[in-house]
Amino acid sequence: MKRIIFLLSSLFFPPLLLAQENTSVYTDLSQCKTLAFNHRPDGIPASLKHCVGIKGYSINVIDENYHENLSIEAPDNHQSTIALNISSVGKKAEWRMKKVGKKLIPMAVIIRVSDIRSDSKAYLSVTKITDKVTCLVERIPVQVSQNELARKSADQSANKTCINFDLE
User: Fold this and answer.
1) Which terminus of the chain, N or C, has fewer Cβ atoms within 10 Å?
2) How many CB atoms lie within 10 A of CB 42?
3) What is the pLDDT of residue 166?
4) pTM of the full predicted structure?
């Protein structure tokens, strides 16, 4: 009887069988390793911090004169800048993962940043990760449902357009 109900439900509700919850994996950004620290010729301090992520991805924070640039490094070492001239990076990165067969595949990363150029000051950056591109797709401003909105954006990021820093 259970098999008959299962077969009938699969005929009438196939999307329910295919729907899989995306999940999150976190990287503690306070554990980043400083790879380089020096002073530029003009005396301004500069550093490069490398944060190990997941599945070969990592996060790099370049700090010059107390202004940070944030990039995602793919397993093939390609760097994608996702934030420029920010004042600080949050304490963790949230990697949104989709299940493909038995594997978890990164599809996006969410990182809280404070932006010295913005009136709202802080936002969640949503960066899509695909086989072809890794890029910033959305900035979610501070609001009551900010985390949920960022996760929804991340889960739909494959269909979103990259933000071009040159147009800002």
Assistant:
1) N
2) 6
3) 54
4) 0.82
Residue 33 counted as domain residue = yes
What is the distance, to the nearest Å, from the Cα of residue 144 to the centroid of all Cα atoms in its chain?
A: 20
In a domain, 10, yes or no: no
Domain total of the chain: 1
Tell me which residue range forms the domain holding 156. Answer: 20-167
Cα–Cα distance for residue pair 19/64, rounded to 1 Å: 45
Q: Is residue 30 scored above 70 in pLDDT?
A: yes
Q: Within a domain: residue 35?
A: yes
pLDDT tens sequence across 57-69: 999 998 887 788 8
